Amino acid sequence: MTLQECYAAMGGNYEDAIGRLRSERLVRKFVLKFLDDGSFTLLQASLAEKSYEEAFRAAHTIKGVCQNLSMDRLQSSSSRLCEALRNGYTPEADALAEEVAADYRQTADAIRAFQKESAE
């Protein structure tokens, strides 16, 4: 799997990421580091604990990282969740959190597949 195929699998914009970071080497570096970021785990824990201010911060971090890396699908869903949590809990946050979780899994799975195939 190429990095471009990874972006296609995650619903991202490869060309935009290259344009922003100026090299495939940098995009690759930061895409692989994405798996080490704890924001998604923090988001899930914060929602489970009903700590909505902390959940907002985690969603905001995910949104920003995804925006910088042109991970468009996850950026879009995390942005909507971020806005739903901006002033505390709203009923739509539950469905949006499920969407973010699905998009995160898709993104992480694509990155893991890229990581595995590029290591071989």
Notes on the structure:
With 120 residues, this protein is mostly helical. The protein has seven helices and no strands. The chain has helices at residues 3-10, 14-21, 24-34, 39-48, 52-69, 72-85, 92-119. Helix 1 (3-10) packs antiparallel against helix 7 and helix 4 (39-48) runs antiparallel to helix 5. The longest helix is centred in the C-terminal third of the chain and has 28 residues, at 92-119.
- The overall pLDDT average reads 96
As residue ranges, the low-confidence spans are: none
Helix coverage percent: over 70%
| Structural class assignment | mainly alpha
Order of helices and strands: HHHHHHH
The protein's oligomeric status is single chain
Instruction: Tell me the distance between the termini.
Output: 11 Å
Characteristics:
81% helix, mainly alpha, single chain, 120 residues, elongated
Summarize, please.
The chain is 81% helix and 0% strand.
Secondary structure topology:
Elements (H helix, E strand, L loop, with lengths): L2 H8 L3 H8 L2 H11 L4 H10 L3 H18 L2 H14 L6 H28 L1
